C-alpha cells in the first residue's frame, strides 16, 4: 500500500495547473466536495493540505491535462530493440493516464516480466510458493478458464489495473499457434473482455514474436520508442520496415504509429541522432523526447511515474510533453 501524500503545490505540479487553474479553484472544489477532502497537518503554525495517492485520479479527472477519450484506445508499445524504455514508457503512460482519471489497464506480453516488475508491488505476507501460485496471467484467463477478476491485479491508483506477465506466456503462444488466424487470438478472445477500460496498453519484449503480432493486430495505435544511440539508429530502419510490412500484409489501419525519441543526452552523437530522426521520420516522430536521467530509473524502482515521483524534474516535463502529444495524436488519428 503506497502511503505517499501530496501537498497542494505538488498536486498543482503533477497536473501542470499553473496558468490553467487558480490555487483557490482547487480549494473551492475541495470545499464543495467535488474532489476528495485533504488531510490537514500542522507544519509549524501553518495548516497544510495533504492528499493521498488514491485521491489523485478524482482530482485529475476534474483538473488534469488530458481529456476523456472519445473512444477506447488499444496501444502497443513496441520496437525490435531491448533497453529503449518500452516498459518504462508503458508504466509512465499508464500511470499518467490513470492519474488523469482515465481507466487504464497495462498488459505485459514479455515473459521476462519487465512490466510486472516495475508496475506491481512485490508479494507480501506469503510464502514464495504461494506468491507464484497467486500470480495468474493471460494463459490462465484465455486457456485455463479463470475469470478476468481472478487475473487482473489492482494497483495503488483506482483507475489503473495490470494483467501481470507469467512464465505461461510461452505456453499461450504455443496454444495460439495451434489455431488458424493465430494473429487474431488476443483481438478475438481478450479485447471483448476489456470493454470497461478506456485505454489498454500492451508492453512487449524486444523480439518479434507471435504475441507481438497479436498486440499489433489488436491495437488501434502503436508507439515505438527509439533510443538516441548508435545501436538503435543502425537498427531503426529495418525495424520500422518490419512493423510496416506486417501492418500492410495484415491490412492494419492504426489511428497513429508514433515514434518517441528516448534516452537523449547532451553528447554530440545523441543530439545528431535525435536530429536525424526528426528529419527522416518527420510525419511520425514526436517533436519532443525523453532524456537519459537517473530520476527515470529511481521512479521505476518506486513503481511510480516520473510525474508522481519527481514532478518538478526536467524529465517529468519531458513525460508531460510526450504524453500530451501522444494523446493528441491518437485522439485525432494523426501520425500514421
Ligand atoms: N530516463 C531514463 N534514463 C536512463 N535510464 C532509464 C530512464 N528511464 C528508465 N531507465 C532505465 O533503463 C532501463 C531500460 O528500460 P526498460 O526496461 O523500460 O527498457 P525496455 O525497452 O522495456 O527493455 P526490454 O526490451 O529489455 O524489455 C531500465 O533499467 C530503466 O530503469
Ligand atoms: Mg521491457
Give a summary of the structure in a few sentences:
The chain has 336 residues and is α/β, with parallel strands linked by helices.
Can you describe this structure?
This protein is an alpha/beta fold and 336 residues long. It folds into two domains: 5-61, no CATH class; 66-332, Rossmann fold, CATH 3.40.50. Helix content is 44%, strand content 16%. It has helices at 8-14, 23-31, 56-63, 86-99, 114-119, 128-134, 138-142, 148-151, 169-178, 185-189, 210-218, 230-249, 268-280, 294-301, 306-309, 314-332; strands at 5-6, 39-43, 46-52, 73-77, 104-108, 153-154, 160-163, 199-203, 221-227, 256-264, 290-291. The strands form two sheets. An eight-stranded mixed β-sheet has the order 6-7-5-8-4-9-10-11, with helices on both faces. A three-stranded antiparallel β-sheet has the order 1-3-2. The radius of gyration is 20 Å and the shape is globular. The structure holds adenosine-5'-triphosphate and magnesium ion (MG).
Structurally, the number of domains stands at: 2
Ligands bound here?
Answer: adenosine-5'-triphosphate, magnesium ion
Second-tier CATH architecture of the largest domain: 3-Layer(aba) Sandwich
Structural class: alpha/beta
CATH homology superfamily name of the largest domain: P-loop containing nucleotide triphosphate hydrolases
**Beta fraction:** 15-25%
Instruction: Provide the succession of SSEs.
Output: EHHEEHEHEHHHHEEHHEHEHEHEHHH
In CATH, the topology of the largest domain is named: Rossmann fold
Report the span from N to C terminus: 40 Å
How does the major sheet shape up?
8 strands, mixed
Global geometry: globular
Averaged pLDDT: 94
Task: Give the helix level as a range of percent.
Answer: 40-55%
Order of strands in the sheet with most strands: 6-7-5-8-4-9-10-11
Number of strands: 11
Query: Helix tally?
Result: 16
**Which spans have pLDDT < 50 for at least 5 consecutive residues?**
none
Q: What's the alpha carbon Rg, rounded to whole Å?
A: 20 Å
Amino acid at each position: 500500500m503506497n502511503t505517499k501524500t501530496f501537498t497542494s503545490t505538488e498536486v498543482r505540479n503533477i497536473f501542470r495547473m499553473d496558468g490553467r487553474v487558480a490555487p483557490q479553484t482547487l480549494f473551492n472544489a475541495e470545499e464543495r466536495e467535488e474532489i476528495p477532502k485533504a488531510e490537514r497537518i500542522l507544519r509549524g503554525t501553518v495548516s497544510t493540505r495533504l492528499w493521498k495517492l488514491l485521491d489523485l485520479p478524482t482530482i485529475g479527472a476534474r483538473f488534469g491535462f488530458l481529456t476523456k477519450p472519445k473512444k477506447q484506445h488499444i496501444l502497443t508499445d513496441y520496437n525490435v530493440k531491448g533497453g529503449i524504455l518500452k516498459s518504462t514508457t508503458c508504466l509512465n503512460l499508464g500511470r499518467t493516464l490513470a492519474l488523469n482519471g482515465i481507466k487504464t489497464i497495462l498488459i505485459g506480453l514479455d515473459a521476462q516480466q519487465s512490466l510486472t516488475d516495475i508496475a506491481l508491488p512485490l508479494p507480501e505476507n506469503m510464502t514464495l510458493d504461494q506468491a507464484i501460485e497467486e500470480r495468474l496471467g493471460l494463459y490462465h484467463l484465455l486457456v485455463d478458464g479463470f475469470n478476468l477478476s481472478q487475473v487482473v491485479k489492482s494497483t495503488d491508483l483506482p483507475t489503473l489495473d495490470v494483467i501481470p506477465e507469467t512464465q505461461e506466456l510461452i505456453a499461450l503462444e504455443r496454444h495460439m499457434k495451434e489455431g488458424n488466424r493465430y494473429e487474431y487470438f488476443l483481438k478475438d478472445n481478450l479485447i471483448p473482455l476489456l470493454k470497461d477500460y478506456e485505454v489498454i496498453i500492451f508492453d512487449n519484449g524486444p523480439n518479434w514474436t507471435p504475441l507481438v503480432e497479436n498486440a499489433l493486430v489488436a491495437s488501434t495505435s502503436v508507439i515505438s520508442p527509439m533510443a538516441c544511440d548508435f545501436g538503435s539508429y543502425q537498427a531503426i530502419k529495418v525495424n520500422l520496415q518490419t512493423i510496416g510490412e506486417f501492418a500492410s500484409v495484415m491490412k492494419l489501419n492504426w489511428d497513429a504509429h508514433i515514434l518517441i525519441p528516448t534516452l537523449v543526452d547532451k553528447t554530440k552523437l545523441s543530439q545528431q541522432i535525435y536530429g536525424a530522426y526528426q528529419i527522416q521520420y518527420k510525419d511520425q516522430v514526436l517533436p519532443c523526447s525523453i532524456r537519459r536521467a537517473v530520476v527515470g530509473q529511481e521512479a521505476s524502482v518506486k513503481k511510480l511515474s516520473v510525474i508522481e515521483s519527481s514532478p518538478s524534474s526536467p524529465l517529468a516535463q519531458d513525460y508531460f510533453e510526450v504524453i500530451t502529444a501522444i494523446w493528441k495524436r491518437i485522439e485525432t488519428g494523426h501520425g500514421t
